[in-house]
Every structure is written in C-alpha cells, then in structure tokens.
Specification:
Chain B: It is found in: Mitochondrion outer membrane; Plastid, Chloroplast outer membrane. The complex is a heterodimer of chains A (328) and B (537). Chain A is mainly alpha-helical and 328 residues long. Helix content of chain A is 61%, strand content 5%. A 4-stranded mixed β-sheet of chain A has the order 2-1-3-4. With 537 residues, chain B is mainly β. Chain B is globular and about 105 Å long. At the A-B interface, α6 of A face β11 of B.
Amino acid sequence: MEQAGERESEEFTLVARKPYFDLPTACPACLPLFIYLKLAHFPFRLSFNSIFPDSDQIPYVESGTYVAYNNENGGVIERLKQDGIVDLDSEFHSVPDWVAMKAMISSWLADAMMYELWVGSDGKSACKIYYSDLSWPIGKVLFLKQVYSVKQRLGITKGNAEQREDEIYKRAKIAYGALSTRLGDQNFLFDDRPSSLDATFLGHVLVTLHALPETSVLRSKLLGHNNIIRYAEKLKMELIESSSSSSGPQIHSVPSSSTPKRGPSNWSSKPKSKPKREKTEEEKKFKRRAKYFLAAQLLAVLLFLSVMGGSDADDMELDDEDEGLVYG
Amino acid sequence: MSNPDSVPDLTPPDSERQKPFDTSEIDEEEDNGGDENDVEDDDEDEGGNDGVFRGPNRPKPQSREARFRSEKLKMESLLQRMKTGPVSVRVHDVIIKGNTKTKDHIIEAETEVLNNVGSMQELLKASQIVNLRLQALEIFDSVKITLDSGPPELPGTANVIIEVVETANPLSGQIGAFTKAEAGSSTVEGSLKYKNLFGYGDLWDGSLAYGYDHSTELSAGLYLPRFEGLVTPVTARAYLLSQDWLKFTSYKERSMGLSLGLFSSEHHDVAYNIAWRTLTDPSQVASRSVRRQLGHNLLSSLKYTFKVDRRNSTMRPTRGYAFFSTTQLGGLVPNNRSLRFLRQEFDIRYVVPLGFYRAALNFGVSGGVVFPWGNGFSSKPSSLPERFFLGGNISPVCALGGPTALWGFKTRGLGPTEPRRQVNDGTADPSGVDYLGGDLAFTALADLSFDLPFRWFREKGIHAHVFACAGNVAKLTENEYRNFSVQKFVESLRSSVGVGLVVPTSFFRMELNYCYIVKKFDHDRAKTGVRLTFSAS
C-alpha cells in the first residue's frame, strides 16, 4: 500500500501517558499498545502527554500526517492491523477460543481494572498515573468526575455497591483461572506465538502487579496464579527492561516525577528486610561501644602518665633534697 | 427690644420657600434667628450664598417682588465679586440626605475634594466634580448639591448639602457591540446589571457575549468602588468562555476562570487572572504541534497595561497620538504545574492632520513577543492561545493594543502552518493546514482618511480612506530562534494596499474596502477584492 510506503520514511511515535511504578507507561489503556509494538519488534519512539488524562484519543500512534487514535476503528491495534502496519493476529481471528478470551479480557478484566483503580482502592495509584503533572485543583476535579463516570459505566449505585463489587471480583477470578489454565507452562497464550491477546493480558497483569497497592483485592487474586506471574515477569524483562538499555531515545514531553521501584523480590519479602536493619543497628552499637572503650583507655593512660609523671618529679626533687641533706 | 411677635410677621407666608438670604428678612436686632431657620429647609439650586456675607443689614422689603429684586441684586454683587477675584470661603460640613441603602462612607469618599476648597470659585468647581463622581457610581437616579451658609458663629463657611435619589429600579439591561482585539473580531454582548445590592455601591452584572468567530462567553462580575479603604475600585469577574478555532487551528478552547482588577487609573491597569483552560480537538484532524498542546492547563497570570491615548477620537482619529503596552507574566504558582510565559505587546499610533477635507494621515506600528520561561525554556513550545495571530475582520485603525489585524487577510490567515492529519476518506479538506501563529509579530499601517466632497456624506460622517499595511509573524521557540534573522523576517513581510469607504454608526464602524494583496505566501488566507470590516468602540 502506498500509504505504508510513505509512512516508512518517517519514524513512528507512540504517544502515551507518563511512566510510573517502574513501567514504561503506567496507564492500563496505553501499556498493552506498547507491549504489542514491542512483541512485533516494531521500531518506534515513545512520547508522553501528561496533561490530558480524560482524553479517549490517547494512546495514539503517529507518523508524519498519519495518526491512529484509540477512539476510532476499534482502537489503535485494530487500526494498525487494518492499515497493514503491524499485525500479529492474522491466524488467530478464526480460532474461537482466541476470540472468546479476547472478549473476556476486554470486558471482565477491563472492568475489574477500571473498578479497582478508581473505586476499589483509595485512588492514590490513579492520581499518580493520571494527575501527578496537573495542578492540584484541576486534578482533584477531574478525579471526582472520573470516579462518577466509572460508577455510571459499571452500574454501581449506593444500593448495589457491595453486590456489584463481588460480581466484578468473581468474574476477574474466573478470568484469571481460565487464562492460567490456557497459559500452562507456555511462553505465550496461543500456539507459543505472541498475539494482541498476550499484549492486552500482559498489560493488565503488569499494571495490577506494579501499580495497584498491596492491599488491593484484585492483586491478591492474581498473585494466586504463579504461572501468570512468571509469564509476566519474564516478558517484562525481555521486552521492557532489556530494550530500555539498548533501544532508541525516549522523548519525555514533561519531566517525570520519581518512580518508586518495586521488583519481584518484594511480592512477599517484608520479613527479609527486617533482619538487615537490625544487623546494621547492632553494628552501630558495637562501634559506639568500641569507641567508648578506646576513649576510656586513652583517658586512663593519660591520667596515669600525668599522675605518675608528677610523682616522679616529686621523687626527683626529694632525691635532690636528700642529696642536699646528705651533703649538709 | 423688638416685639417677639413681630418676627413671625417678617417671615414669608410660605415658609417652604425661604430663601437663603434671610439676613434681609430679619430685624436689625435679630440677626441670628433667620440663619438657623434656613439650614434645614433650603432646597434652592446652587446659585450663591448670600447668607455668608452678612453684609450690611438691608431694610425690610415690603413685597415679594421687592424681595426677589433685592436677592437678584445680591446675586449680581456676588458674581461681580467673584469676577474680580477669589471670594474666600471654606466648607464646614457636608450633609448627605436621601440615602436609605447606600452607606454614608461611600458618598463621603467621593466628597473629599471639598475639604481643600479655599474660595467660592473652587467650591463651585469642586461641587461639580463631586456631582459627576457620584453620578458615575451609577447607583443614583439623581444627585443634587446645594450650597448653603455655614453656622452663624463661623463666618466665611459654607455647608454642602448632597441630596441623592437612589435608583428605583436596581436591575437594568443593555445590549451592545464590542471589538475584542485579541480575538480579531467583534462580539455582541447582552448584560444585566444589578445595582447596589449591599449598599456599598456594588454593581453586579451578568453577561452573555457571542462573537463572530464562534466564541461564547458567560460571565458574572462585581465592581466595588470603595473596598476597605483601597485607592482604586476593585473589580472581580468570573467567566466561562468557549472559543471555537477548529476551522483555523483545529482546536477548541474552553476556559473557566476568575479575573481580579487590582489597580486601575487613567494610564495604568493591573489585573490578575486565574483560569482552568482546556484545549480539545473533537474533529481529530489536528496537526502534530496542536496535538501536543491538547489538554488541561492552569493559567495564573498578572497583566499590566499602560495606555496613553491623546487622539481626538477612537472611531475617526484626525489628530493626536496613542501608546499602548501590555505585559503579561504567567506561571504565578509555587510549583511548575501551570503555564509559564512572558508576553509583551505594544502599539504606537500617530495621527497627522492635513488641513483640507478633514484629512488625516494615521500611522501605526505594533509588535509583540511571547516566550515560555523555566527550565529548558528555549526548547519548549509557547502555548497556542498565547501566540500572535494576524488577520481578522476588524479594521486595524480601531484595533488597538497589539498586532492583530491586517486589511485583506482573513482571521488567523497568515503565518507558520503545519499540515493536518491525513484522513483517508473522500471528504478530506483539501486545504488541510493548521495556522499556528507566531511568537514574534509585527504590523505597520498607514491610513489616509478624508471627507468626500458631497455634503450628505459629510453630514452622516461617512468618509473615505486609502490605506497600506504590512505584517508578519515568526516562530522563535523550540530552538527556532537560532534560525531567525531580521533580514529574512523583513523579506517575508506580507502587505496589502487598498481604498475604501468608512461608515460610522452609533454601534460600530463599518468599512467597505477594496484590498489588493501586494505580497502573500502560499498558505495565507487572503484574497484581492472587496471586504467588509466591523469594529466597535
């Protein structure tokens, strides 16, 4: 297609929300697209927009005058497939299981993520991802607007809040179970080949593990499936951490705030950190005591020297006198 | 000893019509009584204060005509005295009547000029100033000032009595047309005003304005003439503004904010503005530079305006000069999460009268620059709405404040452009560019206006003009200033000349011009031909 040819001359740029929580982009809508392009080994630059949290156009892919927005044609991934730019799913469209799992991730897991980010947890993670570069009053108003809109979309009212929550978590649990069974010990979900299903599922898993707080119910449900955790961490290392050291420049449109690091060793490792701290305290105590001991020693020596030295001088004077006496 | 009974005989039968010159009414031995009677009931217009003079006691007049004649004589002698030299008098007391809702201190604040009065002439002048000031508060239907004699034990003093009638109907409405120079177009505005709600001279107004360039503004404002002893009036305005620039630059702007007028005098104006501004692109065809700016921003800025306008008219200046300068500093919050920019624009006008046919040569030069500040400012882009856009359907002669309009060029019709998003359906807009405006702008104009030789035109104020103008915008941010050179800037100046008819009406100034575009560039939206411009004062 001539359009693809024209576009190849210019680099592709992915515009996503800002990185946080040790993820290249912490927004659950943007991360799947990032992973998809990485899985396809598609070269692109990364650029950020952190002042438009309520836009449904982001993430988008652009090259010259070509732009694929997320709110058109079923999403960026679909649009890129249609335009022949990137397509990992060419053989999977006719596989009914694949289509069903895609639908399950796009509905049940997407709802669960939306619920957990905005309603289930205390909203701190969402504020960090979406509003950390906006002025506080604007961020606060947009947050409240978004919480209201999420409740509307998920059909949550004061009366059925608990019931809806149970339903959302139950569905998420079923989805995790099915996906875990599907995954087994393989590297990818279907035919040991990457597809957009892997990208979407992996995006969800990484945000759940890294961005949601440790008290999150959804996160604890996910932690029960070790093969999913293994699959996620392995692909994260391959796609994100190894490529970040060797890939092209990443353009940051706004300065990103500091991102706290949380690696896999922290999943259940709270007791490990405690003995380390105690050891260093003991060391400090020992060092302090040693110092006191040394100081006491030195003081004793000095005292001894000063006293004994004085008495020697007295003795010497007495000797002189004695001598004097002897003489006299 | 005169008979006390004789006193009532001396007072005129209709006591309400007592004149101030009561010294003539009273018997020689009873000088004091008349003046005291006089203070409360006097309602004569300012015409002189003969009671002050305590001149030689006149003999008792016999009839009303004789009384009027004697008063007239006194008035004439007072005026004669005033003509020859200052008649010394000072103000003893200011009495305010008629205000039920308005607080006294609001009215008293406007009468301070009376305290320094030393003569009759100064007193009259000061009274007029006070009258105008009180009427300018817009909360009174009528203001009447009466000068009266002071207490009899203090000679050479006067009392000033101010009678106000508060507005019976505090709610008023008006519809008008205005020109917004920054937007390059005119707006029609309808507003409702509520006067004096709390008695502090406060004016509340709500207005809805609709602009020709698809902009809508809903605002509510408050004007306080005296707030806690501040020297200048305080104005506060909360607004909701929506502007549609989709056709030119593929974005829509929505602002919600508050602007506070901190200081305002004849030449200086300082205002603070805080707003939440959102740029969106519902059309989804924006070019790359515009896409990068879409989103929410906090605007917190201080704006200082200095203006001197010594032209004899704003609609048709034939003599004088004017100078405008506006400086705006944005980013006044403790952190870096707001729009940081510095914007400076100026406008100089000079009008030379030529003597025949009321002709005048009007010269104007204006320029402006905008730049972001903060870390890495030279590589950051400037904010889109803060940039300079040239072109519009207002006349450059009336658009004052900065570089805005050029004859012949349409709204946002010249300057750097960027191709829009390529949409692959058949309905793609062939022009497909966004006008991005510039960080540096310059315009110059020369306009010769003259009366037409026909009397009918002259009577209506319709006159003709021949004009020439030139202008350009350039980008300086994102390290483009390294490629900037004055020579290139001058070489790429757009220009146009033309001739036209100017029709001033009570609402706006309309121009029917034939413009010939001398120089333009590929994407500029300008065409040689007949154009109509509307400018409101």
